[in-house]
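Methods — Computational structure assignment.
A single polypeptide chain was analysed. Its primary sequence is given first, followed by the predicted tertiary structure written as structure tokens.
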Amino acid sequence: MTWWLSAAGNVARKRLRHLGMRARWAAKAGQEGVSDARHAVRRGGGRVRDAAVNTAKRWFRRARRPVRAATRRKHQLEEQWGFYRTEWQIERELETLVGRGRLIVAGPWISEVGFETLYWIPFLHWVKAAFRLPEDRLVAVSRGGVAGWYQGLASRYVEIWDHIDPAEFARRNADRGIVKHYAPSPLDRDILDAVGRGIGTREFDVIHPGLMYRLFTLYWSGHRAMGFVDSHTRFTTHAAPPIIDPALLPREYIAVKFYGAQSLPDTPHIRGVLRSLVAALAEQLPVVLLDTGLVLEDDHADYTFGGSGVTSARPWMTPKTNLGVQTQITAGARAFVGTCGSLAWLAPRLGVDTSAMFVDPKWLHAHIAVAMRAYHRLSAGRFAVADLRAFEGVGPAKAGHYVPFVRGVRL
């Protein structure tokens, strides 16, 4: 009997364990089902939420697109309006100066030769024409004997170096710390005081080069098209008054002026190529080299070359006459070859076909376009540019043949 009761108890306990295991499995399965259901609900809610957010984003982007376009357009218009304000402000300043009826001093010009010939003088011709200024109200102030550049523009010319020693001028000009002439400096003030003493009155107004720089910066920076420069310049031809005896010069010659610049840096390789080029040109016609030995206006130093058929103009120049002498020599040449800049911008207006050299055109794009357009319209001397890198591998005897063709000289 006892054995039977013990066996029955064991069976009952085993059955209870089985029932407990099934109950726990059922509870676990139910719990997992609830968890799976919860996750399924959560995933479904996430999908609905994501779909709603994505839909909202799409509608937001669609709504924002015209707003952003309108905002960009507003900024563009504000920028353009700023450019127009600058232009109108400068024109109002000029109109006010002219309207005062007083004597007007144009200058002083104390910076780069190239910007004076390519922009400043044509700009002054535009001012004279646009505001109907008579010549007797204008006094031009510059340096280096360039009175001939201002013929037909101003009735009087004041030479800066008649009043300030060239060496002192060079030092004080360098102290300005910037090549471009955007604003008046103490050097300007002293020069204008000397101009007042020279012309006998301080009762005059000033058209400062900074006005021209402020105006044309809109073009140089790419914010205005070249037509903007066209509408604010008047290009004219020039005549060169004699300063040195023409008998000093060969009967026919090529004027050459190479100097170190950002577009044509002074390196041993470039110097060698230029030396070969000058030698090749001298085989065609005598070469008159316009090296001055002076660094007075800017940071450009002349290359100096010698050799058979090459004559340096340095002995014929003084600081007070160096630019005037270079102009006279260039005007009498069969062709002008030199660095793209400085006198290369002037030579075509002297009626001389010009070949301008460079190796880095990024400094010149805007200026070359202005020059080529202006000289074509003016029917002046022809103007061509050449990349000196095209001479790579060319021997000295053939270098001259790669210079752009100029009238009357087979190069």
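Note: Strands lie at 103-106, 138-142, 156-159, 204-207, 254-257, 287-289, 310-312, 335-339, 354-358, 383-387.
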